[in-house]
Amino acid sequence: MTQQSTDELTAALRAAMPLCERLDMSVVAQSPGEVHLSMPWSATTCTVGGAMHGGALMALADSAGAMAAFLNLPDGAAGTTTIESKTNFIGAARGGMIHAVARPLHSGRTTVVIETELRRDDGKLVTKTTQTQAVLTA
Fold this sequence. Notes:
The protein is an alpha+beta fold and 138 residues long. The chain has helices at 6-16, 18-22, 54-70, and strands at 26-31, 34-40, 77-89, 97-107, 111-119, 125-137.
């Protein structure tokens, strides 16, 4: 099996979740143990004071978590869907890139639990999200 380039992985992410293309998300790296996505700050995704909107940040965290959950599905699973998500907003993002790192906390037969951190270019924490993904069967 050949390893896909980040461009190919980004294209696959955007095809599976069109919102990822709309928000210009890219795959930096992926493995079952850790998924890295990035998204640029944009004036079109901001709220008061030039801070990136919480919904855009949550979309990045959810997308990274979904990819991590998908990479940890049990044999025979057809897919995954978010059934619960909790985000703590810790800092603002007012420019640059937002970097998501998602790691599985639990991979079971019916659910996958993912923890995702979003950070600014300077490494400062923006959000911390814990989400539960349901394992879908055919």
